[in-house]
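Many introductory courses stop at the sequence. We go one step further.
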Amino acid sequence: MDQSILAVAAPSLGADLDATGGQLQLVVAMYTLAFAALVVIGARLGDVVGRRRAFVAGLSAFTVASLAGGLAPSPVALIVARAVQGGAAALMTPQVLSIIQLQFEGELRARAIGAYSLVLAVGVAAGQVVGGLLVGARLLHDAWRPALLLNAPVGVSSSPNCA
């Protein structure tokens, strides 16, 4: 969902941060680059430190990076935050798939993977709608910030350590 929200928010972001076209491309692409570069390492870390611990660490880092991205004072700070988000997602994502693989067999595994895939697909579509609504609502002077800050409260409320 985060990628599609950012695609909608990019024009507002570019104007508010006075970002160049290249910087905007890096803001959008850095997440994917970091994710792709680190996902195999993230999977291995789950094997070494435990899937739950790796997932919680990834969720925590993703939440902090989302907050940093939403509060970024410059395009460079936002690019760095997006790289951390991608790295954190590379730590979380393989844990979910590994847990599904280990906890389910046969038809139940197929259903679990199908449900996971459905959530991902709905997230992409919802990101465009939610991003458009958040940017269009102009909740803050910099209309793009709520679109990035959205992940912070979701991450905090999703944390297994929350009360």
